[in-house]
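User: Run a structure prediction on this.
Assistant: Running it now.
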Amino acid sequence: MSEAGFSPQAAPSVRLGLKENWPQFALLVLINAFVGGMVGIERTVVPLIGAEEFRISSTTLVVSFIVSFGVVKACANLVSGQLADAWGRKRVLVLGWLVGLPVPFMIIAAPSWKWVIAANALLGINQGFAWSMTVIMKIDLVGPKSRGLAVGLNEFAGYLAVGVTAFLTGYIASEYGLRPAPIYLGVAYAVLGFALSILLVRDTRDHVRLETAGHARQAAPISFREIFLLTSFKDRNLFAASQAGLVNNLNDGMSWGIFPLFFVSFGLSVERIGILKAVYPAVWGILQIATGPLSDRWGRKGLITAGMWVQAAGLLLTAATSHFEWWFVASVLLGVGTAMVYPSLIAAVSDASHPSWRARSLSVYRFWRDLGYAIGALSAGVIADLYGMAWSIGLIGAITFLSGVLVAIAMEARPGARR
């Protein structure tokens, strides 16, 4: 049964708010740290596995694992909201972990690059289902007043785990090699995330019923096609958020695949590459504790616009320099800019969506956002093969700046929640 058809009556004991639901909220924060850690095991070592162990000389082919990840994750995001409404959030979360369990074992055992690509397709499903559900369930729990805070804490946990894991895998790889030792972290994350999701997580659809009861009824149910068109193009705020999300992950997909190869071309060690790959998501993760609540107080538009421009500055600085110290500063800028953007975008989509179709609108936004991984990795790989990696990084930086301009023009400063 879909949320659109829910009765407005909720269970008497159900209440909205972070304080009222903190045990489940904290559990979901922990679980999303494990979700993020699954991506973190790949940020430093997997591009280097392709280049050094499998002797792949084409940058485009090396980043193909990100393309498979991005396309599959985008499609998983697109259906995750529908499945969450039909099956319940918990079931989709558990399914995401079930699909993710084989991923670290496939990377450890991979006899060819095709295995890594296949593992990343499964990782895309894991991330599309599990990360989507942790976001949606937190938003369900806290209600409309603290969406930015809820998203900020969720993304803090996920991306701090990405950064910490990227650093740890770089350090472990410098001591014990690219495989299998660094990937054992992924085994622990997958097992713990799966077990906690089955044993301790409770569904949150009663919280949605309670919030829906406080909203005006819609004249007629809204179809998924209508939601897709609204989120993608027709609603100016949802369109602005969707394009910014796509470009944000376009530059993240580029940095995931290109940065390790770019840094190693200047003779940087795997351990120092691990530091650079850790700083960006760690700063991104930690600052979202502040930027999420700030978007509740200041509005979403200014943080999103400025955040895209700060990211662009970090990318252009990376392309223009050739020393670790400048790359470190650029990585910090990337982290700061992304922290400004990421929770604000999800909260902006939630603001502009009715509770009865919010999960589906978020799934469409996350479809466009995570399609950026594939577009960014593929376009960056092609540009790098034709003109060099510095040109690839610089052009993606220019696109990121223009996306911020589009947000400044199209998005309303303080859009009201859609009724």
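The chain has two domains: 17-207, 223-413.
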